[in-house]
Amino acid sequence: MNVSGKTRICGIIGNPIEHTLSPIMHNAAFKELDLDFIYVAFKVEKECLREAMEGIRALGIHGLNVTIPYKEKIIPFLDEISPEAKIIGSVNTILNQSNKLIGYNTDGIGAVKALEDNKVELIQKNVILLGAGGAAKSIAFHFSQKAKKIMILNRTLDRGKKLAESLRSRSNADVCWDQLSREAIRNHLKKADILINATSVGMNPESDVTLVDPNWLNPEIFIFDIVYGPVETKLIRDAKKIGAKTMDGIDMLVYQGAMAFTIWTGNAPPIKKMKETIVEKIKELRNK
Ligand code: ATR
């Protein structure tokens, strides 16, 4: 990597940030396309968010990813936000365009792109979405532009209801909600084409936990789990065992990053390289 006086700086802000895989993924992508960009991680304490954002402007940092816990808190410090980020109420990508900070959310569109590249069509599909948190919101917004029906199942019913209601007037799909329970999943699975786990259930160290009883899965249902640590959650393992098609959280991680890469550089992202880099890094971490 040749860092020069002209190198453009991108990065990620959040807290904690030590375990982020974004720097390794984006630096590999910049190198692959021979772009004079570098990507670093910034750990920002919550009382310093304002100063951090002033610093972004003062130092001319070109682009940022935003992660937990700042995806919503960052919004007042931006000059503009894209229509989808406004509706979702969260920003995961910022472009510094001549000192104008523009916020985007690439999570949901990344998930749609990842599905399309996995040859999964959303048009006319019945989708079950488990969860109504930040990631689920973004997915629900984009999926509801294309799918026939989205059933949002959330542990906290009111959160699921709010999300469904906020999408109803803005989407082409029939957006419904129900209380998340084992029974509800069983019932709704009977009519589903795609099931997405957008909750944190199944994440390390609870990698043997799933919300979906394997007996209710069938090979016709496409299973997408946004959890990427472990790469193969129990839900994904169960689905593969019965021959169902699956997509893991790494695809979503890569595609949301890929969309950010294009926002910052204007280039088509080297998806294959980005994914290989992440998979290798995860393998390396697992063997440590
Ligand atoms: P993120 O931004 O990563 O989506 P989040 O906003 O905290 O994180 O959302 C986490 C999601 O996982 C929520 O839908 C949460 O349900 P609640 O709204 O009821 O909190 C869901 N979730 C977390 N732990 C869960 C569990 N043990 N069972 C069911 N759902 C769970």
Give me some keywords for this one:
six-stranded mixed sheet; 10 helices; binds 2'-monophosphoadenosine-5'-diphosphate; about 290 residues; globular; about 20% strand; six-stranded parallel sheet
Mind explaining what this structure looks like?
With 288 residues, this protein is of the alpha/beta class. 38% of the residues lie in helices and 20% in strands. It contains ten helices and twelve strands. The strands form two sheets. Strands 2-1-3-5-6-4 form a six-stranded mixed β-sheet. It has a six-stranded parallel β-sheet with strand order 9-8-7-10-11-12, with helices on both faces. Strand 8 (149-154), helix 6 and strand 9 form a beta-alpha-beta unit. Helix 1 crosses helix 9, helix 4 crosses helix 5 and helix 4 (107-117) crosses helix 9. The longest helix is centred in the last third of the chain and has 17 residues, at 249-265. The protein is globular, with a radius of gyration of 19 Å. The model has no long low-confidence stretch (mean pLDDT 95). 2'-monophosphoadenosine-5'-diphosphate binds at residues 131-136, 154-156, 159, 180, 199-201.
